[in-house]
């Protein structure tokens, strides 16, 4: 059950992509500018995560962001049974020697399935921090120079400068300035 949820929520490319529910133009227009300020801001925005995943997939390192997201979700897990199930899924998907999307982290070889018996919300924190730093100091800077990021930024700017956006801005200005 958890694996189905995990796959659906984190691995399915249709999820968290913002395409089926267009966000308000105000939020979208600030997207790339906000993403460029920090990896944290990028990871807080579903559209940013989608674009970053797209980029990492091309670099054959999408598992890094998927692991980081899985750890974030794991921290919110309530109940020992659910926590054990999710911990095992994270271990089997990202950390075990047979993992389908193995991440490369220090101390990984010392991890064993025995830690999964007594899970706690921060049990993957050190490994998650390693992956975050790897993304922050390696992939993130390349992402900001990538065609994926630059094209998205360009389309935001074009949208911002469109006659519809300017008309809406003028209407909003009249409403708030009266």
Automatic annotation (TrEMBL):
Residues 1-18 form the signal peptide. GO terms for biological process: regulation of G protein-coupled receptor signaling pathway. GO terms for molecular function: G-protein alpha-subunit binding; GTPase activator activity. Residues 154-178 are annotated as: Disordered. It holds the Pfam family RGS. GO terms for cellular component: cytoplasm; nucleus; plasma membrane. Keywords: GTPase activation, Signal. CDD domains: RGS_RGS10. It comes from the Eukaryota. Residues 38-149 form the RGS domain. PANTHER family: REGULATOR OF G-PROTEIN SIGNALING LOCO. This is RGS10 protein. It comes from Pomatorhinus ruficollis (streak-breasted scimitar babbler).
